[in-house]
Design brief:
- This protein is about 65% helix and about 10% strand.
- The chain is α+β, with helices and mostly antiparallel strands and about 450 residues long.
- The chain has 3 domains: about 60 residues, no CATH class; about 120 residues, Alpha-Beta Plaits; about 220 residues, no CATH class.
- The chain is elongated, with a radius of gyration of 42 Å.
């Protein structure tokens, strides 16, 4: 604007207020609509609940009963493995049964269902504490679901780390071996009394003893051959799998390394870390984001390396199986050859030699069982010291804070700014003359008088 001296007038607060009053209905409509949408969205959003528990994993494994100090595995490897176990189908299947039993005890059969996707497990910082949580829209379902997962994992953990019961097994085996030894000693005495036979040829005794040893060796080799054959079949099964199926098979397998390779263990641990990293990135980005694609490429590379390690292990295992098979066939041939030599021994000598060989075999078996029992007792005493301690048991679900009221209160303020911006935008698009100053600027003349707005009277 310009005054009578030709100077341009500055925009004043009055001009600003005039624009605001002219477009007050537009500004007010924007603010009201925005406030209504915020209140509506907040009211229509369902209330979410969450129940959680805190578990302490006591780690440490003694070398043997004579070494008091335990050895520890890698913290990251152990904790990552435990998180995968909690989120595995082995634990979820137990949790579903516990969840169904809890509903049945409350008389609510079939009203709710356990959802594995609602379960989350996290490690607290660099500690051995694991937080297990279950979230959903029903507080009772969250409470029962958290309890089911927590105690299902504890049961699975105890079952996995519990040492085998060996006392009853060895006692029965030792009693049986002692009974057989007594029986054959009695048979020898009866044979010597009945036949009047006072001795046997050293060669026949040697051959029968040799046959007994060969038969025992043949039984051991048959067991080794069967074990190796199962390992070859398992590795062959792994070779036929790929991608997510191979990952799932390796995750649900027991903690033993199927490939028996340190490199394979490291690769499997790296794969677990990359999958956890991918899950974290997917909470922020989509599948097509460059970071997600980069992690997927790393996972694919690791899968290729794991597959190559499995193939190498399969080739080695297959070669060992062929060696064991050849050894088994050689022992079988030696057994047949020894049997032919024994058949040539006179009957009485052969009978006595057979009895003595049986006695010798059962004596060795009895001593072997005593030694194995002692070793088993030491192994049982030096079993894993792993233990799960419930720091915070699963309790009643609490309402999760799903709304940030500070940010929600900023909505009407931002709507006011948008309304003012729209008002001044429409004002700039309106080229009509609204006050005397604009008339003076447009005509280049001074306004001498104005006629105010006149309201008609009825």
């Amino acid at each position: 604007m310009a005054d009578l001296t030709g100077k341009k007038q500055e925009v004043t607060i009055r001009d600003f207020l005039n624009v605001v009053f002219r477009w007050k209905f537009l500004i007010l409509a924007v603010v009201l609509v925005t406030s209504f949408l915020i209140v509506y969205l907040k009211a229509s959003k369902p209330v979410a609940y969450v129940s959680s528990s805190r578990l302490l994993v006591k780690r440490g494994e003694r070398e043997n009963v004579f070494v008091p100090n335990p050895r520890y595995l890698s913290w990251a490897e152990e904790m990552s493995s435990e998180l995968e176990v909690i989120l595995s189908e082995a634990v979820f299947s137990r949790a579903r049964k516990v969840f169904a039993d809890s509903l049945e005890n409350r008389g609510l059969e079939g009203t709710r269902r356990f959802s594995s996707g609602a379960v989350r497990a996290d490690v607290v910082g660099e500690s051995n504490v694991i937080v297990v949580s279950y979230s959903g829209l029903d507080p009772l379902e969250c409470e029962l679901g958290c309890k089911a997962v927590t105690y299902a994992y504890m049961d699975y953990f105890k079952e996995k780390t519990a040492p085998p019961t060996v006392t009853d097994f060895f006692e029965s085996e030792i009693d049986e071996a002692l009974h057989d030894l007594t029986t054959w000693r009695t048979r020898k005495s009866e044979f010597l009394s009945r036949e009047g036979f006072l001795g046997s040829d050293r060669e026949s005794s040697h051959q029968l003893y040799k046959l007994s040893r060969l038969q025992m060796a043949l039984a051991d080799e048959a067991g080794d051959l069967q074990s190796q054959r199962l390992r070859v079949e398992y590795l062959s099964e792994l070779l036929d799998l790929s991608g997510a199926e191979l990952d799932r098979k390796l995750t649900t397998t027991a903690s033993d390394d199927p490939v028996q390779s340190r490199v394979f263990s490291d690769l499997r641990f790296e794969l677990l870390k990359l999958k956890s990293k991918r899950e974290e990135i997917l909470t922020l980005y989509t599948e097509k984001h460059p970071d997600v694609i980069a992690v997927d490429n790393q996972i694919n590379d690791l899968r290729i390396q794991i597959k190559q390690e499995i193939r190498n292990a399969y080739d080695i295992a297959a070669a060992e199986y062929e060696e064991l098979l050849a050894k088994y066939n050689a022992t079988s041939a030696e057994v047949e050859k020894t049997q032919v030599q024994i058949d040539a021994i006179p009957e009485k000598e052969r009978q006595l030699s057979r009895i003595e060989s049986k006695i010798t075999a059962f004596e060795e078996k009895y001593q072997l069982l005593l030694e194995k029992q002692h070793e088993a007792e030491i192994a049982e005493a030096s079993s894993s010291d792993f233990e799960i301690v419930v720091l915070t048991p699963p309790g009643k679900a609490w309402q999760r804070r799903t709304s940030d009221y500070v940010r929600l209160s900023v909505g009407p303020f931002l709507a006011l700014i948008v309304g003012l911006g729209l008002a001044f935008f429409f004002e700039s698009m309106d080229h009509s003359l609204k006050n005397p100053a604009e008339v003076e600027e447009y005509l280049g003349s001074t306004v001498l008088a104005t006629i105010g707005e006149m309201k008609s009277k009825k």
